[in-house]
From TrEMBL:
Coiled-coil residue spans: none
Official protein name in the record: DNA-directed DNA polymerase
PANTHER family: DNA POLYMERASE I, DNA POLYMERASE NU
Organism for this UniProt entry: Actinomadura rugatobispora
UniProt xrefs under InterPro entries: DNA-dir_DNA_pol_A_palm_dom, DNA/RNA_pol_sf, DNA_polymerase_A
Length: 606
DNA sequence: AGATCAGGCGCC
DNA sequence: AAAGGGCGCCTGATCT
């Protein structure tokens, strides 16, 4: 059972029940209180809700205390379907999908809601009705393709027009179901992506437990007391002073300026090509260790310091905005707050409420296990049936170790090189071992790389598809080995970006694209798996009641739960990981073990 | 003054 | 210990 939903301004909306093939199963109905109507039907029938975008509608429901079990996010699914055809960046709104369906001119997506401050009247400006009203304000009722006549009824949108949108929603949904059914894995992908959108909104709503006090203590310990005005914290200023003393130059250098640092090194007779940490580490000068320490602390201060806390932490919670499908591989991105780049040292500030625990779970060696399951290489899969995959592979690499490295280290290097397209120095030798002992696993990623180099698309297990190469890339790589233009083809995924040299050769462009598609099949399938895990875990946690998913970072989840439920959450995590493996790969010897820690503080996990 | 680019580094 | 791909966000420098 499904129910299509269109929101109106003012909290009302329109609903229509659908059969599982998307056909209307009853009359449309308008309601004055959409949240209440959804809550009532969720209790009665537990339908799959079909709506344009969870990100715009669901936060309002959560504010009203309403949660739902399942949904179909039309925009996310439209993106996946377009992507499967190699059509990246085309409009994905319901109106656009509707226009494509009818062979009419396709309107551009309306711009995203202006600014989304971390707190404030967020939900009014980002609600679905406002989104649609903004569409009409921008383009007129029929969209830009129809000449954009003026909007008669002003910026708002009432129940009448919600009913009109409902008609488009029903039609677009039915068409999506038809297309999804033709693509293996896609039904699961659409469901998992939609479940992810629910998790993302709920995590943004619930927030990650965060102690601003602990953060302040940590910052004070590392940087000195919080400075006033725009001053540098005491310890940072002291380092800057010592850096200048070490250079001993007449004109002072600002350690935040790479250009000035490079000049300073040149002035003392030690020119450097850049001021990256790994470059500086090779330079023997007393300023180097000071600069490295300065960079580390400065980053903490500017990216996750007191200003960050003022902006993002409220009421003991950090509430980032997650962007489902924000990365082409299916990983999530975030919008503000840098939730996926929180420095490890700051995990000290993530603390469970009194009487509650954090269940921190991370998938061990996820990407090589995914490769094992994808490739169907029996010897390799046997290793991936073990708790420590690299250790299980190490027999094959015995005797390859130089210096102090173990065979396990060598196995890990070989695997990472295969999955990421590295291969300098000894990695080449280790790759040869991998190729001879695990030919199918090796061939799987090689085939993905070759596909990329000839401009083909590659897909994840469930069908998520990489973006096509740009026109610039095609032009460059079809012209032979002539040096290319001025970065004209750069920008799209898997193409050489800026960097020191603007000149990109055809060979470089080919290799870069090959590395991208080689990595894509593994990273995107790992993201498939992680989404399936998340969906399964969310369902199990709902049965337990109070536990909440509060953090998700690629292959790691954190659940905030009453302490007495922590063991049940732990079991739910293990069961969900197993379920995810089964959903993606069916019967496979490969296991996807989770390392789970029950802690009061995130920093105490592993 | 505001927008954009480049360099750099945090996370997986 | 690192390598690779993927991101977001900061500052300084430069452009408009």
């Amino acid at each position: 059972m499904r129910i299509a939903v269109a929101a109106a301004e003012g909290g009302g909306g329109a609903l229509r029940p659908l059969a599982d093939d998307g056909a209307p199963a009853g009359p449309a109905e308008t309601v004055g209180d959409l949240a209440a109507a959804i809550a009532e039907r969720e209790r009665a029938a537990g339908p799959r809700w079909v709506w344009p975008a969870t990100a715009r509608l669901y936060p309002r429901l959560l504010e009203a205390g309403v949660r739902v079990a399942r949904c179909h996010d039309l925009e996310l699914v439209e993106s996946l379907l377009l992507g499967h055809q190699g059509r990246y960046g085309e409009p994905r709104s319901v109106r656009a999908a509707w226009a494509r369906l009818r062979g009419e001119p396709v309107p551009a997506d309306p711009p995203p809601p202006q600014e989304a401050p971390p707190q404030g009247s967020l939900f009014d400006t980002s609600s679905d009705a406002a989104f649609d009203a903004s569409f009409e304000a921008s383009f007129g009722e029929e969209g830009p393709g129809a000449g954009g006549r003026p909007v008669a009824e002003g910026p708002g949108r009432g129940l009448h027009s919600a009913a009109g949108e409902l008609e488009r929603i029903v039609a677009v949904h039915a068409e999506q179901l038809r297309r999804v059914a033709e693509l293996p894995g896609f039904a699961l992908l659409a469901a998992a992506e939609s479940a992810g959108s629910l998790v993302a909104a709920e995590m943004g709503h619930d927030g990650l437990p965060w102690s601003a006090e602990r953060q302040d203590e940590l910052l004070t310990e590392l940087l000195g007391p919080r400075p006033t005005g725009g001053m540098r914290p005491r310890k940072l200023q002291a380092l800057a002073d010592r850096i200048n003393a070490a250079f001993g130059l007449r004109t002072p250098v600002n350690p935040d300026s790479p250009a000035q640092i490079m000049k300073a090194f040149a002035a003392v007779g030690l020119p450097v090509t850049s001021t990256r940490a790994h470059v500086l580490k090779r330079v023997d000068h007393p300023a180097v260790p000071l600069l490295l320490e300065y960079k580390e602390l400065s980053r903490l201060h500017t990216a996750h310091g007191w200003t960050w806390a003022d902006t993002w932490v409220r009421g003991g919670r950090f509430r980032p905005e997650y962007v489902v499908g924000g990365v082409v591989s299916g990983r999530w991105a975030t919008n503000g707050g840098g939730a996926l780049q929180i420095p490890r040292v700051l995990r000290r500030a993530v603390v469970a409420d009194p009487g509650w625990s954090l269940v921190v779970a991370d998938a061990a060696q996820l990407e090589p296990r995914v490769l094992a399951a994808l490739a169907g290489d029996r010897a390799f899969a046997a290793a991936a049936a073990e708790g420590d995959l690299y250790a299980a592979l190490s027999e094959a690499f015995r005797g390859t170790a130089s210096d102090g490295a173990t065979a396990r280290d060598q196995a890990k290097i070989a695997l990472l090189s295969a999955m990421y397209g590295g291969g300098t120095g000894e990695a080449v030798r280790l790759l040869a071992v991998l190729k001879s002992r695990f030919p199918q696993a090796f061939e799987y990623v090689e085939a993905a790389a070759r596909a990329g180099e000839r401009g083909a698309l590659v897909r994840s297990r469930l069908g998520r598809t990489c973006p096509p190469p740009s026109a610039g890339w095609r032009r460059l790589t079809s012209e032979g080995d002539e040096p290319g233009g001025d970065g004209d083809g750069a920008g799209a995924s898997g193409e050489p970006g800026g960097g020191a040299s603007r000149q990109v050769t055809a060979a470089q462009a080919l290799r870069s694209r090959g590395r991208f598609t080689r990595n894509f099949v593994v990273q995107a399938t790992a993201a498939d798996w992680a989404l399936a895990l998340l969906a399964a875990l969310r369902r199990r946690l709902a049965e337990l009641g109070r536990p909440r998913l509060v953090f998700f970072q690629h292959d790691e989840v954190v659940v905030h739960a009453p302490a007495e439920l922590a063991d049940q959450v732990r079991e739910a995590v293990h069961a969900s990981a197993e379920e995810a493996g089964r959903l993606l790969f069916g019967r496979t010897p490969v296991v996807f073990p989770m390392e789970v820690a029950v802690v009061d503080c995130y920093a105490d996990a592993k």
